[in-house]
Amino acid sequence: MMAIDKRENLKAKSFKELKLLFKEKKEPTYRAGQLFVWMWKKGVSDISSYTNFSKKLREYLNTHFYVGSLELCDYLVSRDGSVKYIFKRETGEKIESVFIPFEDRRTVCVSTQVGCSLKCSFCATGKMGFRGDLFGWEIVDQVLQIAKHQNVRVTNVVFMGMGEPFLNWENVKRAIFILNSNFGINIGSRRITISTAGIIPGIYSLADFPLQVRLAISLNSALQEKRERIMPVAKKYPLGELKKAIEFYYEKTHRLITLEYVLIGGFNTGREDFLALKDFCKRLKVKLNLIPLNPTGNTSFSTPSEEEIYRFYNLCLSLPLTVTIRESRGKDVKGACGQLAGALL
User: Fold this and answer.
1) 274 CA to centre of own chain
2) Does the pLDDT at position 75 exceed 70?
3) Is residue 23 part of a domain?
4) How many structural domains are present in the chain?
């Protein structure tokens, strides 16, 4: 029988908690910064290698603690250069993350939950159901491990993988602070983006968050009935209340929100859809990101034709805001928007 490791995971502790740990051991509190550098900046898990700690301190830490990490199970390289990673947690569940290199940006798309409870009908993750929240350290470890595997410095992080970030907000906040910390991954807050299906309390909470992270909202229809059909969460958080939250967020932060609009063939690309979108965007300080549906195995929906995509795009160009069509990366390895968890089903 395998012995159970009863030691505590140092990565699971916040910077404040580490300072308290060292203070209780009569060590200077700057040790917390040194430890963060070893764990998060250098990515070293072997405590005995922490040479700026005394031998006595290293022995104490090794006796009572360990430095945890996700297990890299597999990775799939896309023809476009993106790489989908599959990691295993200490508890055995698997999650997926994506490395997306493009020009001078090296972006990691991270998961925040195992599965998702929202059951958006166009998203593969929703088919899994909800299996659990990730800890803050597990969210950051996706970035750290991918950076080490690719031997690059990650420049951007998007919370657009498996799960709804605002339904695991406390752990997401912990992750953001480590990602942004000078002692940690050291990514500028404006290079971190949270994507939500429209969890309104989370939008209000982010407006008060001290770091200037970016916000994207998965809209997908500005018609309430249609949005409810593909996003059950819209019943709880209707479009009218969502618009109020967007207005509040901009008034409080003066940061543009990105509206993500997945284009579903023959469903949300007609003139009435455009007119509803036009009305929804009135008075809003937003930009619009059109995302052609990526295949997920749901035969109820189809990817729109190129003609359908550009017809809707040309209508949207009349709106007084920036409109772009997002080219999905990693489709051939099921690593694109809406496809994560495909390898796990």
Assistant:
1) 28
2) yes
3) yes
4) 2
DSSP 318: T
- Confirm whether residue 259 is marked as ligand binding: no
Q: Are residues 298 and 322 in the same domain?
A: yes
Identify the bridge partners of residue 71 per DSSP, sorted by sequence position: 88
Q: Are residues 163 and 255 in the same domain?
A: yes
Residue 2 lies in a domain: no
Indicate if 144 and 24 belong to the same structural domain. Answer: no
If you compute the radius of gyration of the chain from its CA atoms, what whole number of angstroms results? 21
116 a known binding residue?
yes
**Domain-located, residue 1:** no
DSSP notation for 276-290? HHHHHHTT--EEEEE
The single residue of 93, 96, 241, 251 carrying the catalytic annotation is: 96
Quick check: is 96 catalytic? yes
Sole residue written with tokens 């406390």: 170
Asked if residue 221 belongs to a known ligand binding site, the reply is no
Question: Could you tell me the residue range of the domain that residue 199 belongs to?
Answer: 71-344
- The answer on whether 294 is annotated among ligand-binding residues is yes
Angle at which helices 136-150 and 169-180 pack, to 10 degrees? 40
Average of per-residue pLDDT across 139-145: 98
Mean pLDDT for 258-276 is 97
Q: Give a yes or no: residue 126 inside a domain.
A: yes
State whether 191 and 278 are in the same domain. yes
Please indicate if the annotation marks 219 as binding a ligand. yes
Range 51-62 average pLDDT: 97
Q: Are residues 42 and 114 in the same domain?
A: no
Is the four-CA dihedral 225, 227, 289, 79 of positive or negative sign? negative
DSSP per-residue codes, 304-323: PPHHHHHHHHHHHTTSSS-E
Place of tokens 């229809």: 221
Per DSSP, the three-state class of 324 is strand
- Do the annotations mark residue 92 as ligand-binding? no
3-class DSSP state for residue 225?
Answer: helix
The pLDDT, as a whole number, for residue 2 is 42
Rounded-to-integer distance, Cα 206 and Cα 187, Å: 18
Catalytic, 90? Answer no
Task: Kindly state whether residues 243 and 215 are assigned to the same domain.
Answer: yes
